[in-house]
Amino acid sequence: MVDTLIIGGGSAGSVLAARLSEDPGRTVRLVEAGSPRRSAAEFPPELADSAALPVGGEAPWLWRYPVALTPELPGQIVRGRGIGGSGAVNGCYFIRAAARDFAAWSREAGTRAWDFEEVLPFFRSLENDEDYGDYPGHSRTGPVPVRRIARPSRLAQEFATTCLDLGFGEVPDWNSMPGGPDTGVGPVPCTIGAADSSGRHRRLGPAHSYLLPALSRPNLIVQGDTLATRLRFAGDRVVGADCLIEGKPETIHADRVVLCAGAIESAALLLRSGIGPADQLAELGIPVIVAAPVGRWTVDHPEIGIEYRHPAPAVGAVPLEYVLGFDDIEIRPYTVAFAPGVHRMGVTLMRPTSSGRLRLTGSDPFTPPLIEQNYLATAADRSRLRAAVGLAGKILDVMSADWSGGTDEGAISDHWLYERLGSSQHLAGTCRMGRSDDPRAVVDERCRVHGVDGLSVVDLSVVPVPLSRGPHATVLLLAERATADLR
């Protein structure tokens, strides 16, 4: 029996386990389906190198989920497996969500608690910004190292210069006050260590920043190779979880359970446990504990990948050193090679009007759920991406890049978009936050699941709005904010 059982040892789980176990009178147990990794030395070298994007092949540190990007177009979502989760395999990108995102979040939650001004102290508490730590809204005292690449690659420099020449403003700090700039081009703040003598950096995800330093605490148990299969109830209260520990069944009892398994697995665990749409659960023979809209609404960042050739080498300190942002678009000149001799520029819709859904296809925890992204389902989404691709084409033309396309928005057909459509791997919203009278809401403003006691969800699945930036900084903020309510 423990005070708090945390299911999922990724970004949010690492924060919560470390923060909650700061109280020596509270016992915390974190379970993770993948590798336990009890020291930095146990992370594979591919995960340590910040220049790599270690999401290819059948690596043991990945989960792969089939998805339908559109009804006709299959795709795949990749998630980190093992302690550190997706924060151990991502691009080190650390841009906060914009102030307007938090304003929309507060409206959905029915409280001002998620306004930017309210969450800013939590951003500051987690951050150690090596470049802007002394500036307003920043800090140098948090556990998360943040720095920009001091010597960007040739490709990133040419991209930035081209954007400036086209009239976009320079953004030295995407996390500047008040709540981040809306438009411009600038370096990506990254969660990496200082450069070594060869100019290489080390990826430092939340496991390094939060969890590993806390492992010596006697009140914290971290357990890998443990898959949570179903929640346990006593009446309307969650009292633990059934797990497979190295394949053997065991029930772990707790006063409170916190799901941090990510937008896919947190939702799937709720559904397997009888919390979800009653009609879906009945079809699968799962007894309904609480009828809730789990998986009814999902959102992600659809991305058009433009491949091109350019004489600059495909090398960089991180996969993405600079970005251009404007309106609801982010243009990403990746410095990592996706194919020999081929560069890729990502054109991403950050606030799509289309939404998707997730549902179980069976009660077996090893059967992946059905994820329908429903990308580009609205004319508005397709129109915005066509215009953005046209701008990306102008940038590539000025950079003298060799690419197959044109800058005339009218010549960019839906078929052209769909041929290059992919995912930013930022699935969110499956356990959406909202008021108790909101038919779309699964959790309240404090991340507590409606209709049951003793159960919270703290990960990207609760975010109720599309985010204008990549989600990693916001996930850590969410976990820091939730810690204050769980203490």
Automatic annotation (TrEMBL):
Family in the record: Belongs to the GMC oxidoreductase family.
Top-level class of the enzyme under EC nomenclature: oxidoreductase
InterPro entries: FAD/NAD-bd_sf (IPR036188), GMC_oxidoreductase_bact (IPR023978), GMC_OxRdtase (IPR012132), GMC_OxRdtase_N (IPR000172), GMC_OxRtase_C (IPR007867)
Names of required cofactors: FAD
Keywords assigned: FAD, Flavoprotein, Oxidoreductase
GO molecular function: flavin adenine dinucleotide binding; oxidoreductase activity, acting on CH-OH group of donors
Keyword Flavoprotein annotated: yes
UniProt domain Glucose-methanol-choline oxidoreductase N-terminal: residue ranges: 80-103
Protein name per the record: Mycofactocin system GMC family oxidoreductase MftG
EC number: 1.-.-.-
